[in-house]
Amino acid sequence: MPEVPVKCPKCGHMAVSAVGERTGGVSLGKAAIGGILLGPVGLLGGALGKKKKLYQCKHCGYTIEK
């Protein structure tokens, strides 16, 4: 689980909080393991993506994705 950023990289303010989560991108680890275990069908599992946490600075509104 990624840590909450300590400070905003844009303004340096310390008030950063978690605002949500999104799924996106391709998880190469999932695709590799799925390909080994399930063959071509398992490779599609990597296309399901990985979860990313969204954080937002309460001072300037900058959004950080980890």
TrEMBL record:
The chain crosses the membrane at residues 31-49. The keyword Transmembrane helix applies. Keywords: Membrane, Transmembrane, Transmembrane helix. It comes from the Bacteria. This is LITAF domain-containing protein.
